Automatic annotation (TrEMBL):
UniProt keyword annotations, A-Z: Signal
Leader sequence segment: 1-26
Lineage: Bacteria, Bacillati, Actinomycetota, Actinomycetes, Kitasatosporales
Name by which UniProt lists this protein: Extracellular solute-binding protein
Gene3D superfamilies: Periplasmic binding protein-like II
Record-linked PANTHER family: ABC TRANSPORTER SUBSTRATE-BINDING PROTEIN (PTHR30006:SF2), THIAMINE-BINDING PERIPLASMIC PROTEIN-RELATED (PTHR30006)
Length: 383
């Protein structure tokens, strides 16, 4: 999921939802510190205490973040380092389906190098909890996180909401497709670009919702438009506005200036809570606790994530509904879809019959350097 852009859904939120920073709701339970942007004093104090502990531990942190470009999660690392500059922060971004396999291997071999898993593969977290692979930790802000997206025992939590909707070329103006059936118009033949749905479970779920509602006939008509398929939602979004391609659904936009994003009013679209946890055998637990607590702090949720907050006390992006208020998306549905691996794999096999096998290199690791134990983006110190 994409990002130095602000994550895949960051692009959707920043361009569609009128800017990344959201205004904090008044919180009468805690006070604000002068000179800060609505940061509760108690959270500030807790974060500073955790910072000291992380430095005493060695001051190193490795986060495995889901994404489909190498630098997609760097905006989080950069915001974190502005607050805690003495931490050596290794942000390793790759497709979540590769990171989870990587983490499984690290657990199995007894050589865990990742401290935090921050992924789209929502079904991994209950599985890892059951296996005893996660550390129990309730970060700063835990009580304010939506109950629906956090483990009641404290082993994992949603940290922000992402969403995939429409990306269309600015040149289309009011003629841009918005609803799913708009993409079937004759004028868009040979001009559509999509992420391989059999390569990204969130995109697969987007297609699943469409075929559930409109039937496989919709998919046949869409493919009759001769769309281009690429690896990575960011690549799909970035292609819009170039080489004659004018529209996409199932991604979150780009910063090319050539496209805009929109949310359908009636057709289904996809949202979910990007979820994070600390690994039980993480080599830097104190730094991991600092990171999760910072990420869920009111300050970071208000000013740094660029999307719908995981907290109930942070305002929704300007001009938008609350994440649970849209009738044509369910933020909990992707997790249920991914939890039924048999059903998911059957639908993926069906889709593959229509769109063909996935072709191309891993968009987050085009040079194949990450390997089994990456600590840095280039795969060094851990091959």
């Amino acid at each position: 999921m994409n990002p130095i852009r602000k994550t895949l859904v960051g692009a959707l939120t920043l361009s569609v939802l009128a800017g990344g920073a959201t205004a904090a709701l008044a919180d009468s339970s805690v006070g604000s510190t002068a000179g800060t942007r609505a940061v509760p004093t108690s959270e500030q104090a807790q974060l500073q205490k955790l910072y000291k502990q992380a430095l005493a531990e060695g001051g190193t942190l490795t986060v495995y973040a889901g994404g489909d470009t190498p630098y997609q999660a760097d905006y989080l690392r950069d915001a974190f380092l502005k607050k805690f500059p003495k931490i050596k922060f290794n942000m390793v971004t790759d497709l979540s389906k590769y990171h989870d396999a990587r983490i499984d291997n690290q657990i199995a071999t007894g050589r865990v190098v990742a401290d935090v898993a921050q992924l789209q593969t929502l079904d991994d977290f209950p599985h890892w909890k059951k296996e005893g692979a996660l550390a129990k930790y309730k970060p700063v802000g835990w009580d304010r996180v939506y109950n629906q997206i956090k483990d009641k025992d404290g082993y994992y939590t949603g940290v922000m909401f992402f969403g995939f909707a429409n990306v269309t070329a600015k040149t289309l103006g009011s003629n841009a497709p918005v609803e799913a059936k708009d993409f079937l118009k004759p004028e868009f033949k040979n001009k559509l670009v999509f992420t391989y749905p059999n390569d990204d479970d969130a995109v697969l779920f987007y297609f699943k919702q469409l075929t559930d509602r409109y039937g496989l006939g919709y998919l046949k008509k869409l493919l009759a438009q001769h769309p281009k398929f690429v690896r990575g939602t960011q690549a799909a979004a970035d292609t819009v506005g170039t080489d004659g391609y004018v529209a996409n659904f199932g991604s979150a936009g780009s910063y090319s200036g050539l496209s805009t994003t929109s949310i359908p009013e009636h057709s289904p679209w996809v949202t979910w809570p990007q979820t994070a946890a600390i690994l039980k055998k993480a080599p830097h637990k104190a730094a991991a606790e600092l990171y999760l607590s910072w990420l869920l702090s009111k300050d970071a949720q208000t000013n740094s994530i660029g999307t719908w907050s995981a907290r109930t006390d942070v305002a929704v992006p300007a001009g938008r509904k609350g994440i649970f208020d849209y009738k044509n998306t369910n933020p909990l549905a992707l997790g249920k879809f991914m939890g039924n691996r048999t059903g998911l794999d059957r639908y993926k096999a069906l889709i593959t019959l229509y769109v063909g096998d996935v072709k191309g290199v891993d968009p987050s690791d085009p040079n194949g350097v990450l390997g089994l134990y990456p600590i840095n983006r280039d795969g060094t110190q851990g091959r």
